[in-house]
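$ ./design --mode recover --in tokens.txt
reading tokens...
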């Protein structure tokens, strides 16, 4: 009997979570995958928190994929006040209330203490200036979070700066998106599985799913006047809102790449061709918006392409044929 310990990790990325959701749906349909039977731990940040918390609570990947397709536009409808240029400096772009209602409908009144499998959802405590990691009660000594509703933990992990307001939990903790330090939570999960559950590192296998990586951020101009314009008007100045969404995307990308590289090095493998980490994502030369529901067909197409070209690799990695990994 295999002693391998599988971890499912899903990155943040806003509506691009549909890429990960559809990829998981394809895996579920192709192999009738039993998520709880195959994976010993689930970890997700921001949009990845929606997916991993949903699977950990017994929802199907198909249902979670439909969640994005059905509600993406409603979740990412700008607040009226955020459409007024002058008021953008005072308010988040979107209201979190729509997302809160939808999460409560899907996850009900489940508490983290009710989740039957190890679940990790990173967030940030901006009141105390430190990380905040929601965990299901897979270790008896965990006493802070068992009573917290799963929907609240997910909403906190999704509260990306400038996109959604911080979320207050227990009338005490003011929390925001865990992507600021763990957009790719695979390293966090692996360390916790090893330290808390005593899983030997050589037995760890991580299916790590990203939500796309853009390679377009702050290009130099091709002529002297373009370069001057970029230097003059697209720096960190107030007039350009500090290019806030672009900077946040860059931070999240860097964190995801760094976490993957460090995880592979921890497992004594090359990040370029690891055996114990199966990383699935895509790259683009274009900006990849986190909040455009109009991109739904694009993200589904990307996921189909990724699954088609990696199906054999995923099947071998998860040992779904019954052979050795």
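writing sequence...
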């Amino acid at each position: 009997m295999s002693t391998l310990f599988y971890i499912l990790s899903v990155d943040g990325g806003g509506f691009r979570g549909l890429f990960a959701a559809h990829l998981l749906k394809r895996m579920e349909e192709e192999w009738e995958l039993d998520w709880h039977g195959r994976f010993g731990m689930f970890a997700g940040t921001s949009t990845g928190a929606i997916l991993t918390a949903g699977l950990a609570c017994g929802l199907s990947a198909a249902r979670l994929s439909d969640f994005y397709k059905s509600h993406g536009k409603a979740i990412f409808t700008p607040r009226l006040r955020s459409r007024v240029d002058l008021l953008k400096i005072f308010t988040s772009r979107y209201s979190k209330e729509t997302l809160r209602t939808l999460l409560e409908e899907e996850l009900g009144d489940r508490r983290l203490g009710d989740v039957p499998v190890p679940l990790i959802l990173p967030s940030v405590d901006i009141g105390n200036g430190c990380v905040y990691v929601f965990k299901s009660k897979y270790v008896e000594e965990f006493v802070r979070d068992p009573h917290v509703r799963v929907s609240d933990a997910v909403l906190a992990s999704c509260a990306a700066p400038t996109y959604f307001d911080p979320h207050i939990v227990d009338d005490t903790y003011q929390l925001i998106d865990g992507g600021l330090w763990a957009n790719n939570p695979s390293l966090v999960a692996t360390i916790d599985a090893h330290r808390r559950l005593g899983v030997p590192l050589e037995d760890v296998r991580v299916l790590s799913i990203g939500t796309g990586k853009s390679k377009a951020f702050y290009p130099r101009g091709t002529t002297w006047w373009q370069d001057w314009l970029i230097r003059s008007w697209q720096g960190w100045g107030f007039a350009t809102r500090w290019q806030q969404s672009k900077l946040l995307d860059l931070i999240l990308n860097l964190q995801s790449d760094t976490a993957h590289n460090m995880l592979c090095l921890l497992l004594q493998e090359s990040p370029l061709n690891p055996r114990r980490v199966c990383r699935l994502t895509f790259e683009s030369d274009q900006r990849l918006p986190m909040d455009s529901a109009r991109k739904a067909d694009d993200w589904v197409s990307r996921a189909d392409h990724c699954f088609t070209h990696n199906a054999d690799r995923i099947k071998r990695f998860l040992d779904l044929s019954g052979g050795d990994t």
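exit 0
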